[in-house]
Amino acid sequence: MNIAVFGLGAIGIVYAVSLKNAGHRVFGVTKEIYLKYFKDKKFKIKGIFGEKEVVLDGVYSDCEPLKNYDIDLVILSVKSFDTQRAIKEIKKIVKANTYVLLAQNGYGNYEIASRVLGVEHVILGRVIFGSKLVNKNFAEVTVIADDVIIGQPDQAIDRSVLVGISEMMNEGGIPTKYSEDVYPILWDKIIYNCALNPLGAILECNYGTLASNKNTRKIMNSVIKEIFTVTKANNIKLNWQNHEEYIDFFYNKLIPPTKEHYPSMYYDLKAGKKTEIDALNFAIVILGNKKNVTCPVNEVLSNLIKSKEKFFNH
User: Which one of the listed residues 189, 232, 259, 274 is annotated catalytic?
Assistant: First the structure.
């Protein structure tokens, strides 16, 4: 299979290395400023998915060179604030049988991609393993809470195609399953990220510390309750009847295997980078505004993160 990984950060490198190691032709697309680090096209991973080192078939700053290939699958792993730009670029190489898998955080990525490319080309992914950069070309998989889930929310891609892609991912060493209910499953992760990421970034602590403190638990519970109110108002289907059910699952099932994990938002702030707050807590605020539902806790957390972005980038 001819595969392009668009975004060679911590998650993108894991996909690129794993699938190249499994025998596929894999190309990387990254920002031009990073090309100098990838001249030899060598990439490595270590951690939960094992130690692997590969040489990619090409690393480029745009999709123009990939027009010469019939790309079967594009894996999009850029930050959510870069989705619009990335999808516009990816459109250049999308042919009749090209699929684009969104391996991203937050709300709005599927909506942008399907609007530009058409739902028949877009696969939604719920990625809930954690990876961090050891070096520019070297990533470590540090935590996994569950298998990656992929699917097509509008049932616009044949099930056999999606099952085939999930099997390919498994063969590459990335635990993956197909589900018809991928959209509500993605929302499970959006809620998880909204509750944990901004607090972990602001207080500079891991998920376990947040869960063990009664004060941060109170804040996280409020974040979750607001999200349930907003999604109900917007007719967004969730896997849970109410916020109490999710909160029980959150503390007893989701946090324990990821308790040592620090959110990517924490590392982004430390590196002076823009965070994904607009696709997480602030997206909840915007969805609430559409239905005249206030989200004071999500709004405060959004404003605090945006303030820290300005301080750290000053």
Answer: 189
Residues β-bridged to residue 140: 46, 132
Sign of CA dihedral 287, 153, 222, 205: negative
Q: Maximum Cα–Cα distance for the chain, whole Å?
A: 57
Q: Helix H segments across 22-139?
A: 83-90, 109-117
State residue 312's pLDDT score: 65
Cβ 26 vs Cβ 74: under 8 Å: no
Q: Tell me which of 3.10.129.10, 1.10.1040.10, 2.60.40.290, 3.10.180.10 is the CATH number of domain 184-313.
A: 1.10.1040.10
Distance CA 260, CA 265 (A): 15
Whole-number Å distance between alpha carbons of 204 and 181: 34
Fold agreement (2-179, 184-313): no
Domain boundaries, the chain: 2-179, 184-313
Phi, psi of 108 (to 5 degrees): 110, -20
218 is catalytic: no
* 7-26 pLDDT tens trace: 999 999 999 999 999 999 99
pLDDT in tens, 247-261: 999 999 999 989 999
Q: How far apart are alpha carbons 12 and 152 in whole angstroms? A: 21
Note the pLDDT of residue 310.
Answer: 83
**Separation of alpha carbons 66 and 251, rounded Å:** 44
At the topology level, CATH places domain 2-179 in: Rossmann fold (3.40.50)
Of residues 87, 97, 153, the one with CA closest to residue 125: 153
Is residue 162 left, alpha or beta, with left meaning phi > 0 and alpha meaning psi from -120 to 50? Answer: alpha
Tokens 């997480």 correspond to: 280
266: burial class by Cβ within 10 Å (0-12, 13-18, 19+)? Answer: buried
Neighbours of 214 (CB within 10 A): 6
